[in-house]
Amino acid sequence: MTSADTNTLAQAQMAQAQMAQAEMAQAILAHHAAVFAPEGSALPAQPMPAARQSEPVYLAALQACSALGFIAIDAECLARAWQAQTERSGRFDAAHWPDDARDFGLIPADAAEPAAFAACPPSLGLYAVLPDAQWVGRMARAGVPTVQLRFKSEDPQAITREVQAAVAAVQGTSARLFINDHWQAAIDAHAYGVHVGQEDLDALPATALDAIRTAGLRLGVSTHGYAEMVRAQAVRPSYIALGAVFPTTLKRMATAPQGVARLAAYVRLMHQYPLVAIGGISAEQFPEILATGAGSIAVVRALVNAQDPEAQAQALQSAWH
Question: Domains of the chain by range and CATH?
Answer without folding.
Answer: 3-104 (no CATH), 125-320 (3.20.20.70)
